[in-house]
Amino acid sequence: MAQVVVRRLEEGVKQALKARAARHGCSMEEEVRRILRRAVQEEPAAAAPGLGSRIAARFAGLGLDDEWPTWHGHEAQPMEPPQ
């Protein structure tokens, strides 16, 4: 079994854990184990969509359905000066 040491825990947090453990009829150590078990079993938060996905969602349905050309691997050409 692993051990975890928590340093610099505020006195108020320690007292709240102690009171919570007493309400649940267990030791403070067991209460902390229960809290940690619940914390790691929770569903992880979904990752926020990236910038490109957010931009695409914002402009979805505005009629920009054509394929955009891919410029990867092509050299950029300077513009011709106006005459």
From TrEMBL:
<dbReference type="Pfam" id="PF22513">
    <property type="entry name" value="FitA-like_RHH"/>
</dbReference>
<dbReference type="InterPro" id="IPR010985">
    <property type="entry name" value="Ribbon_hlx_hlx"/>
</dbReference>
<dbReference type="InterPro" id="IPR013321">
    <property type="entry name" value="Arc_rbn_hlx_hlx"/>
</dbReference>
<dbReference type="InterPro" id="IPR053853">
    <property type="entry name" value="FitA-like_RHH"/>
</dbReference>
<dbReference type="GO" id="GO:0006355">
    <property type="term" value="P:regulation of DNA-templated transcription"/>
</dbReference>
<feature type="domain" description="Antitoxin FitA-like ribbon-helix-helix">
    <location>
        <begin position="2"/>
        <end position="40"/>
    </location>
</feature>
<protein>
    <recommendedName>
        <fullName>Antitoxin FitA-like ribbon-helix-helix domain-containing protein</fullName>
    </recommendedName>
</protein>
